[in-house]
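Protein in question quoted for reference:
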Amino acid sequence: MPDLDFKVEGVEAEQFAAVPTLTFSLRILSAQPIRNIALRCQIRIEPMRRGYRADDHERLGELFGEPSRWGQTLRSFLWDHVDVPAPAFERECVVKLPVTCSHDFDIAATKYFHGVGDGDIPLSFLFSGAVFYDDRDGRLQIGQIAWSKDAAFALPSATWRALMARYYPDTTWLRVPHDLFERLGRYKRRHGFTDWGKALDSLIPDDALESAP
C-alpha cells in the first residue's frame, strides 16, 4: 500500500464561479506510482489554534459564549467535505480542492469567518478515500488512505473577506421567518422606504447599542 503525504500549499479565490468559491492547492506525494485516487477531504476549523483580540470577543460570543469560558468552548468544528479525483502520477501531483463559501449567518463557519479580525483562520484537512495502484507484478490493487493522514493550513481572513466583498459588495444576507419578512415588508411600504436597509435602520435608535446591557 502506497504511503501518501499531503500538503496544502495555497488558496485563491475563483474569479468566475457561480457562487463564492475558495480553491486550495493540495500536493500529494507518493514513494511509488499511483493509478488514481478517489480522494475525500474533511475540512475543519480549529479556533483554539489562534489568539483573539478584545473586539473579536463580542462578535464570536454567539459561537463560544463568554471569553471566560473559551478554554472549554473553543473546539474544532466542521467547515465542509470535498470529494475530488487525483489523476495518475509517478511521485507527486497537485489537485485543486474547491470549497464553496456561504454568506448565511446561520452557519457556524460564516459566523466565525466574519467574527475574527485580522490574522489567519487555522484549518485542518483530514483525508480518506481509495488509492488505485499496481503491485510488483503489475496487478491493479485498491487500498484505503489511512485516517491519520492530515494537513494544516492557515487561511488569511482577508482572503475570505475579499471574496465576500466581491460577491456581496457592501451587503449582508440575513435569513428571517416568513411572518417577520411580511411585517417588515408592510412597514417598509407604509413608511415609504426605498430599501430594506433604511427600513431596518429606522427601527434601531442611534443609542440602542450604547444603552444595551
